[in-house]
Amino acid sequence: MSPSDDPHLKWAIKVLNTSGYQLKSNTPEIIQNTPWSEVSRFITNKGFVFLKQTPAALSLESKIIKILHEDFKANVPIIIAENAELNCFLMQDAGRPLREILKKQFDTALLCKAIDQFTSLQIAVGDYINIFLDIGVPDWRLDKLHDLYKQLLSQKDILIADGLSEIEIDELRALLPKVSLLCQKVSDYSIKQTLVQPDFNDNNTLIADRSQAITLIDLGEIVISHPFFSLLNGLHQIKKHHGITEESTMYQKILDACLNNYTPFESRENLLKVWVLIRPLWFVYGALAGFRLMAACGKSKILSFQQGKLADTLRALLIKE
Predict the structure, then answer these.
(1) Mapping DSSP to helix (H, G, I), strand (E, B) and coil, where does residue 258 land?
(2) Residue 240: Cβ-neighbour burial (10 angstroms; 0-12, 13-18, 19+)
(3) Of the residues 39, 65, 92, which one is the last residue of a structural domain?
(4) Alpha-carbon radius of gyration of the chain
(5) Are 237 and 202 in contact (CB under 8 A)?
(6) Taking the model in full, what pTM does it have?
(7) Domain at 75, CATH number
(8) Residue in 231, 222, 258, 225 with CA at minimum distance from that of residue 67
(9) How would residue 55 be classed by pLDDT, with cut points 50, 70 and 90?
(10) Do residues 126 and 228 touch, judged by C-beta distance below 8 A?
(11) Which of 42, 119, 216, 318 is the most exposed place for a label (fewest CB within 10 A)?
(12) What is the pLDDT of residues 171-187, one digit of tens each?
């Protein structure tokens, strides 16, 4: 599609041209194209500029970024402009993905610095979650998780379409009391629920080449829930993409980085207890995140793009149980 036919590109080009940017081409490179977001990159006289488009149900990202930047001084992308009608926004370049750097040479200290920055932000937000709830960020706090899980299991046609059997759905339903008990046990510890980035990982963490500033991206699917859900995902991705095992010294250093900023609230011993308790709930959370994408993008689009992912997440809960 040419820029003249695409309203998103027409808007982006007009904004950039009237904001002092000189474009090397009116046709940007598409660097991500999924049912839940399309990201295009313009080459300009001021560096790269990115255009992100999302479905209407996932269009909170620019608002979230602005709140994090203005109220919490967080290292998040700089928004150039946004278009609420088209559900898109323009943002400045913030560097290379940390994963790209770690693939060349694994730098534990740099990764731990990124984790420290993220957990510091989580803790800062913990006292102000209503700011996010008020703009429509989903409330997935632990006292809501049981009912959200129950509602998910009632979507039998979707679960079967994604690959679960009726027997597996019954087995998952039988876990409802355990889910409720685990939520209560985790809630007994003094860790405030806060901003959870569902896909916090080294690929959604950017490093600026010159300043080495660390920027958190991909913030459109944030919810309010337990902070360890983000950290569990981050560590899972590190194990998956860099071959680090839980028995290694390196893994223990990274885990310590995840927990360090929470030691004023609980002892390290208690934090490790929470880490173990919450791991089964992470699959509940992950399934809810997957179902949210289906609701936002349409079942057929998600099933054609990643058939079976929701079912596999729920099966992992059965195995963990």
Answers:
(1) helix
(2) exposed
(3) 92
(4) 20
(5) yes
(6) 0.95
(7) 3.30.200.20
(8) 222
(9) very high
(10) no
(11) 318
(12) 999 999 999 999 999 99
